[in-house]
Amino acid sequence: MTQNDQRYMALALSLGRRGQGNCWPNPAVGCVLVREGRIVGRGWTQPGGRPHAERVALDQAGEAARGATAYVTLEPCAHHGQTPPCAEGLINAGVARVVVAIEDTDPRVAGLGFTMLRTAGIEVEVGVLGDEASRDLAGFLRRAETGRPWVTLKLASSFDGRIATASGHSQWITGPEARRMVHAMRASHDAVMVGGGTARADDPSLTVRDMGVTHQPVRVVMSRRLDLPMMSQLARTAKEVPLWLCHGADADVALIEAWEGIGAKLLPCATQGPQLDMSAVLQTLSAEGLTRVFCEGGGGVAASLLAADLVDELVGFTAGLSIGAEGLPAIGAQGLSRLEETNRFKLIEARPIGGDVLHRWERR
């Protein structure tokens, strides 16, 4: 692995991130073609998942791809789907060398792409910036390996961990810079998810605003009995921006029909006690194709996800103000009696954002 290999793979990774949030269920892959020290083609997975990154880069390069080195963030696909395999496309284009960050764990690929390339006489190197690629593609990999999407839990709270006053007033605990970053995070995920309590209390739109994006993430609301206001922002925009409602089997049929009538997608999920089963909800969302879910609470949902060990990344925005014990906690009760009963996350980033502090944590 040379410094140039790392440099071009870093570019491929940055390109791949452009597809995050708008190419599910396909992975957000980046590809760079280099010939004689000159970049001749660049590509990333396009909205809806096609064309793939390699195809975009090859089409851009044309005949200049012959003899080039391809830098790809994920093993080129080897199976025929709606489009021919990317490994086949690289072979037909006459690429001489392929440098890949990580192997694809999808059983339809899982090394077969490498085999196709090597059989055709193409030099293959694997593992360049593999850790970075694994992080970028974590949602796709999590879904392929466990049947659920990657879950980011975001909490914006006061210094003492409150998300609202006792009366429910919460706008705004954090400043405009933090809120803008939240919109950017929403845009990089396939879906934004909240519980029914948050939907009722805040009347959120859950959209990405003022970021210049051309797509919106799916909006997911969990409400066992579908007791959600029909005159809310979510309801009024259900035909324009995807709205999925996860509900229990005991939800009123008339409510199901009413929400479907205004454009929402209804997803029945198993329950656990009086609440929806979080694991079942995520499996249902995975079956619908989602790979990255951005959860914004409330406290009960946060506690349920953490208690079930379903959170992959914690994102906190902490403001320099206190609300007091009577305020609403960012995380609801989990029934813990000993610290050993909870999971300790690993800090990966902490820095100021405007007047607030951003801290990001990942499961160990």
TrEMBL record:
CDD domains: Riboflavin_deaminase-reductase
Gene Ontology biological process: riboflavin biosynthetic process
Required co-factors: Zn(2+)
Record-level Gene Ontology MF annotations: 5-amino-6-(5-phosphoribosylamino)uracil reductase activity; diaminohydroxyphosphoribosylaminopyrimidine deaminase activity; NADP binding; zinc ion binding
InterPro entries xref list: APOBEC/CMP_deaminase_Zn-bd, CMP_dCMP_dom, Cytidine_deaminase-like, DHFR-like_dom_sf, Eubact_RibD, RibD_C, RibDG_C, Riboflavin_Biosynth_HTPR
Keyword set includes Zinc: yes
NCBIfam families per UniProt: eubact_ribD (TIGR00326), ribD_Cterm (TIGR00227)
Annotated family: In the C-terminal section; belongs to the HTP reductase family. In the N-terminal section; belongs to the cytidine and deoxycytidylate deaminase family.
Protein name, UniProt field: Riboflavin biosynthesis protein RibD
Organism in which the protein naturally occurs: Roseovarius albus
Gene giving rise to this polypeptide: ribD
